């Protein structure tokens, strides 16, 4: 009987031990499932929180970008207006300067440059409208020369006694029909040009 009691105790111990291992195994599986569910729940909560934070950050960035764009547009409009104003001022300044120059040129032309006599018309082809062109690139500039020197030269060309740089015969043909009064008028005109 002792053996059978002992045997019963050993059987009970084995049953309890085996049952304990099974219970521990089930408990471990239940704990693992609960831990996995908790981790999954925490992960979902963290993902939702991150998504919410990203959305908030994106909205804030969008608002800031719109504000920056508005500020840039305002600055661009101000710069454009300033540039337009400066351009208008520059145009006005140019118009005023042009008017001043035109006025001063008209004054200079009327006060400094006398009116050419009709007899000088045939001279403009070689000497220019104001006598400041070297005729055929050979002669001296005749504008501003002394009146008496010009009269003497023109009369010598007319008589055929002067031939500077081979221009004697050409000049003789030009001045041959000029009267003494016309020669004097041309000489007076040329001597007054500065």
Explain what the structure shows:
With 194 residues, this protein is an all-alpha fold. It has a domain at 115-192: Orthogonal Bundle (Cytochrome Bc1 Complex, Chain D, domain 2), CATH 1.10.760. Helices cover 77% and strands 0% of the residues. α3 crosses α4. The mean pLDDT is 78.
Task: Briefly summarize what is shown.
This protein is mostly helical. The protein contains five helices and no strands.
Per-chain topology:
Elements: H1 2-112, H2 124-127, H3 147-159, H4 168-175, H5 180-192
Instruction: Please identify the oligomeric state.
Output: single chain
| Helix-strand pattern | HHHHH
Question: How large is the radius of gyration?
Answer: 58 Å
How many strand segments? 0
Q: Mean pLDDT, nearest integer?
A: 78
The end-to-end span amounts to: 159 Å
Q: Quickly name the level 1 CATH class of one domain.
A: Mainly Alpha
What is the strand content?
Answer: under 5%
What helical percentage do the residues reach?
Answer: over 70%
Q: What is the CATH topology of one domain?
A: Cytochrome Bc1 Complex, Chain D, domain 2
Principal-axis shape equals rod-shaped
> What is the structural class?
mainly alpha
CATH homology superfamily of one domain: Cytochrome c-like domain
